[in-house]
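User: I'm new to structure prediction. If I give you an amino acid sequence, what do you actually give back? Let's try with this one:
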Amino acid sequence: MSIIEVQSLRKDYSTAAALRGVDLVIEKGQWVSIIGPSGSGKTTLLNIIGGLDHPTDGKVFVKGTDINALSEDELSVFRRENIGFVFQQSHLIPYLDATENVMLAQYFHSLPDRKEAEEALKRVGLGHRLTHRPSQLSGGEQQRVCIARALINNPSILLADEPTGNLDRTNTRNVLELLRRLHQEEHFTVVMVTHDPYVTEWAERVIKMEDGRIITDESVSG
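Assistant: Good question. You get back a string of structure tokens that encode the predicted 3D arrangement of the chain. For your 222 residues, that looks like this:
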């Protein structure tokens, strides 16, 4: 069953086209990597799927909802209830501790619950870092906080843009092992933009983009 469907998607800027008629269907529970050179359109595609940007033309259906037909308020609610985001930069609030940073996602979704946030951090292996601020955490630990924050509201979809781009190989592996475990336990859909072939190996399906188009779309054997 499809959870994301993109139809004839275009995104034009004043100087160039970022997407040139993209069609894509992603099944519920899949782990998909989107790869391609800088400027290929992969981040633009991810942002439009997540409702962070709007297409020039085309349709995006997420869980059967045409997200571009929603008002900004409706779209904000839809994102909160269905999509978690992890970016290359952690975007953690420096004066809040790890638990409070996770609670921010709860605040925008429902009522903050410190115990739930602490449990989310324990699930990503940070039970010993609950009261540490971002400056007291390693890069890998910061990304674990981001994963806990992204998943605290039980989204159906996790969108990740170069989530290991600032990490060394050991921390990259640790973060990917964590995501794989959570993905297998909770069966959410993962769509991850990456330029790293090592990260690509963890996916079940690899989509390659160039010049705003999908040029290959392949399943990966386990």
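You can read the tokens as a compact description of the fold. Here is one thing that stands out. Helices lie at 42-49, 72-82, 98-109, 114-123, 139-151, 169-186, 197-200.
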